[in-house]
Amino acid sequence: MSQDNRHPFLQGLSKHRGVQPTIITIFGASGDLCARKLVPAIYNLAVDNLLPADFYLIGFGRKPIPDDEFRELASESISKFSRRPLNKEIWDRIEKNTYYCSGGYDEEEGFQKLSDKISSIEKDAGREMQSVFYVSTPPSVFDPIVKNLGKVGLATKYQETDKHTKVVIEKPFGKDLESARNLNRAIQGVFQERQVYRIDHYLGKETVQDLLVQRFANSIFEPLWNRNYVDNVQITVAESLGVGTRGGYYEQSGATRDMIQNHTMQLLALMAMEAPASLDAEAIRNEKVKLLKAIKPLKLGYENPEVVRAQYMEGLIDGQKVQGYRDEEGVSGQSETETYAALKLAINNWRWEGVPFYLRSGKRMARRVTEIAIQFKRPPSSLFSENEMINLANNSLVFQIQPDEGSTILLNGKIPGLQTRTQPVKMHFRYSTTFGSNTPEAYERLVLDAMIGDGTLFIRGDETEASWNLITPLHDFWKSEGQRGIESYSSGSWGPNASDRMLWEKNHEWRRP
To answer: How far apart are CA 293 and CA 447, in angstroms?
Structure first.
């Protein structure tokens, strides 16, 4: 696309950030994530001329697949899941450099074949290339993949140069604090921390990245971003879908492991952290870790609780009756797994002392939405006392992360007329309206950043442990309690009544997105 044809807001912006000649290897290449997200992301980077001229893609999996068959599967994935239609001319440039290797994840022989293939590509191209290994597999094989990359020398290739090896690891990163620490030790026994990119795709969403811009590039917000003006903060990650065919997996996960510990805590860290010294990746991640470590331990128990768990019952979604969680395929009739969790957090630092942070995530809720809502304190009511003509709401700033990315400011305004009547009014900004609807997928940004070596939107090892340090005692408590304390909520609702009661203690109530 020429500069003349680009959207006016995008004209003059750089389209390339200097990616090294790269060989990407995707472990779990026959899996769903590769088909739905990774291959389409690579294709769309090619459409935007963001891939290096020397770019190679290798799929790796247990199942033997000929190169031509893997290329055909990749082409089908693009046709089905890409945000742009398949352009044969562009795809042909990637396809001719696409290969497949098979082997067991715990067998060194397959990794030696992979090493030989990478060496062969470099020899034919006549140049050295950086290797990026994307681990898109179940967590149970993270450890053997990492260790075998070390055994065959791929982890330390070009170690002290700008072409050093990088490894991208998908979530979930551990299931509790101990397993996260063990996985960190295994990775750090093979790779240096600067080589490791722990991924959380929420961090690649435009609105999440925009949080730093809104906070630190707008003087009207930064002075208000503290306990003096903020009444409470609410972070909602809601899904209207149930567990579907993933009941067996979800029984081992639950809402806190699946959403709260990673996605939701990352949103909290970016929203509440102190200003970093620079936009350097380590400066930003340092502040996120400080924030997570400043969260006070949760108060567990049943008197004035700071956490609520629940399971969805049957109800209506889009007018259709759906079954309850315990009736889903692969779910125990005596299940203790939460499909909804709500937490009330307190941050022990100068900026946020006394401000409650409410986090909730659940399945089978009223609608699919992810948002951060900063609710500000009410102004003194000496001028405008509420009555039948004066309707005042807390001012709020809301970041909508999905499905409709953008932000909203809620103000109080006067209704036109001869009498003084007020009502809350909203000012909306939407990415699709301002910048066009074809916004890049989160994985496009994250794959590109990994190739470049920019760790800003990835999670550091100590960051994962800080998050698990808060959540693991909660899981231990629930395990000791069994089914005691599990609430229920109707599918299609906004969660259990106990979650509302948790906020009433502070005279707060959940926003209805």
So the answer is: 28
Distance CA 403, CA 135 (A): 27
Q: How far apart are the C-alpha atoms of 155 and 62, rounded to whole Å? A: 20
Q: How many helices (H) and strands (E) does the chain have?
A: 16, 17
d(CA 328, CA 231): 39
Beta-strand ranges (E) seen in 109-229 are: 130-135, 166-169, 196-198
Token pair listed for 448:
């590109």
User: Which residue pairs, CB below 8 angstroms and at least 24 apart, start in 247-253?
Assistant: 247/328, 247/329, 247/330, 247/331, 248/330, 250/330, 250/331, 250/337, 250/339, 251/330, 251/331, 251/332, 251/335, 251/337, 252/175, 253/172, 253/337
Q: What is the DSSP string of 401-462?
A: EESS-EEEEEEEEEPSSSS--EEEEEEEEEHHHHH-S-PPPHHHHHHHHHHHT--TTSB-HH
Residue 107 Rama label (left phi>0; alpha psi -120 to 50; beta): beta
Tokens found for residue 462? 């100590």
Q: Are 460 and 287 in contact (CB under 8 A)?
A: no
State pLDDT tens for residues 138-183.
Answer: 888 999 999 999 999 999 999 888 899 999 998 888 899 999 999 9
- pTM for the predicted model, two decimal places: 0.89
For residues 112-144, b (16+ Cβ closer than 10 Å) or e, as one string?
bebbebbeebbeeeeeebbbbbbbbbebebbbb
- Hey, what amino acid is at 179? S
The catalytic residue positions are 263
**What phi and psi values does residue 108 have, to the nearest 5 degrees?**
-65, -30
- What is the rounded distance in angstroms from the CA atom of residue 219 to the CA atom of residue 405? 22
Quote the CA–CA distance of 361 and 342 in Å, as a whole number: 7
Residue 279 is predicted with a pLDDT of 85
pLDDT at 149 (0 to 100): 96
CA quadruple 323, 328, 334, 338: dihedral, nearest 10: -80
Task: Please tell me the distance from the alpha carbon of residue 443 to that of residue 38, in angstroms, as a whole number.
Answer: 7
**Taking the CA of residue 221 as centre, how many other CA atoms within 13 Å lie in the half-sphere pointing to its CB?**
17
Which of 474, 476, 472, 473 is closest to 464 using CA atoms? 472
Residue 448 CA from chain centroid, whole number:
16
Say yes or no to pLDDT of 383 above 80: no
Phi, psi of 423 (to 5 degrees): -155, 155
What's the rounded Cα separation, in Å, for the pair 499 and 486?
Answer: 12
Angle 39-196-95 from CA coordinates, rounded to 5°: 20
Cα–chain-centroid distance for residue 349?
A: 25
Mark out the alpha helices in 254-405 (DSSP H runs): 254-255, 265-272, 281-293
Closest CA to 268 of 280, 277, 259: 259
DSSP codes, 227-277: TTTEEEEEEEEE-S---TT-HHHHHTTHHIIIIIIIIIHHHHHHHHSPPPS
